[in-house]
Every structure is written in C-alpha cells, then in structure tokens.
Amino acid sequence: MNTPLISPQIASSDSEPMIISAVSHSSQRVTLRHSHSRGQLLGTLQGLISIEAESCQWVVPATHSVWIPPNVQHSLLRSHGPFEGWSIYIQKNACTKLPVKPYILELSDLLREAITRTMSWHNSELEPEQKRLIAVILDEIRTMPQVELALPMPKDMRLLKIALALSDNPSDNRKINDWGVWAGISRRSLTRRFTNETGFNFTQWRQKLRMLKALELLAAGKPITEISLYLGYDNISGFISIFRRNFGVTPGNYQKAMINRLSWRNFTNTTIRNDNHINSKLTK
C-alpha cells in the first residue's frame, strides 16, 4: 500500500496556488481512500490506472486525466504495471468555477504543454507570466468536455477481482464460465451483475478495456502487430476493425496523430529522476 503523492495535510494547505508532484515506481501503486481541500488533476505517463472517486470507479489510460474536486473522497485502486504518475493540486478558492463532480478529460495539447512547463519552475515566487499559465490550466480544466472513454469498474468484490485481473493482463482469453469459477460466482450472477454495475456486458467490458490499453501502447509507439498480439487478438485485421469501430480511425492513423505529442515524454526526463522518488514543487 502506498501513500498519496503528497500528504493530505500538505494537499489541504492553502498558502500556494498550485502544488505539482510526480512519482515513479517500478511496481504497481495503490493508495487508500483520502481527501483534501485542494482540487486535483492527475494522470500517468504510461500504463492504466484504476481510480475510485465518490461512487465511481474507472479505468483510465495515459492519454487522459482525472479531475477530482476539493474534499472528494478518492483512491488509486491500482496502477497496472510500472507507475509513472503526475498530479497538480489547486488551491480551493481557485476551484470555484471548476467542475464540482469528478470526471475524465482528454489531455489536450495545450493542457499537456502547460503542465509540462510548470514542472520546470524553480523560483519561489510566481512571475506574472507564470500566473497567467496557471489561469490557462484552470481554463482548460473548466472548458474541456467530459469524455465517455473511461471504463466503469464493478463494485461486487468478485467482479472487481476479475476486472483487475483483466486490467493487469488484457490478453487473458478465459471464457466467462472459467472466470466465474475462478472468482467464485455463477455465470448467471456474473452476467447480470456485470451489466448492472458497469453498463456493459462482460464481453463488451473486456473489449473496451483492450481498446484503452491499445491507446496507451499506440501513443508509446509500439508496433500495431505487437499490440494486437499483446491484447489477445488472433489476427491484426480483427484488432484494426474493432479499433476503427470504437474510435473512427485505424490504429495506424491514430498513432501518426500522436507523434506530435511525443514532447510529453520529456516530462519523464525532467521531473522524475529516480525510481520511487517523489518530486514536488510548490508554486507561490
């Protein structure tokens, strides 16, 4: 079990307009439910994360981020694979015009670059241009539309066990009967509860999970054939067809579009120095 990126006490302080943190772990990361008086925008540089906020549980890819308003209970259920994460904590009085419910937003190019810029700040007092950049970040959070990309997680502990196992290994092609035996739940209950708790049947949920993982791997520049095999597809044409049906473009075209965002990887080199190291900056 891991502690939050910064302590809830620091995250509840109100002296600095923004606190920026980054952390890297060679293994999965889990944090307990907690809250703080600041709003929080968090995401990863690679991998999927399972987030719980209020009554919602989602699987979120590295191409997106999670907005958590002030004083909302939340936890990182699990990072799936090595974890490289970032988070910005926004002063409570600056959150009055921001969304009052947790939601998922895509990392726009502008928001991505603005966050990257803040990670290079070293001065203790904010310059006028830095204050304007913080205002840009707030505007992006406020105006970016909510997306339906994130995948709801089931709440039943038996179903959650299955969902987390698939998140760790999306290529697992066990049939629904086998999953039921493994988790100790009947096929009928598994089928009914999965749909009731996530809005998707089991097959749809697994397919959407694989598509989220595909987005991350494509953004990382992995070959499409390799991605297809990793996600458990028997042939690349089937993977391409399902991807295009979900996102309206082929995996190849999506990957080309992501090339322009490769500067985000510089974030890793400039802010995350060593394994298990937290780098936090207070902007005053």
TrEMBL record:
Gene3D superfamilies the record matches: Homeodomain-like, Jelly Rolls
What the entry lists under InterPro entries is as follows: Homeodomain-like_sf, HTH_AraC, HTH_AraC-typ_CS, RmlC-like_jellyroll, RmlC_Cupin_sf, Tscrpt_reg_AraC-type_HTH
Q: Name one GO molecular function term.
A: sequence-specific DNA binding
* Tree of life domain: Bacteria
Pfam families xref list? HTH_18 (PF12833)
SUPFAM superfamilies with a match to the protein in the record: Homeodomain-like, RmlC-like cupins
Keywords, A to Z, come to:
DNA-binding, Repressor, Transcription, Transcription regulation
Domain HTH araC/xylS-type span(s) in chain numbering = 160-257
PANTHER family found in the cross-reference section: HTH-TYPE TRANSCRIPTIONAL REGULATOR NIMR, TRANSCRIPTIONAL REGULATOR-RELATED
- Name-wise, this protein is AraC-type DNA-binding domain-containing protein
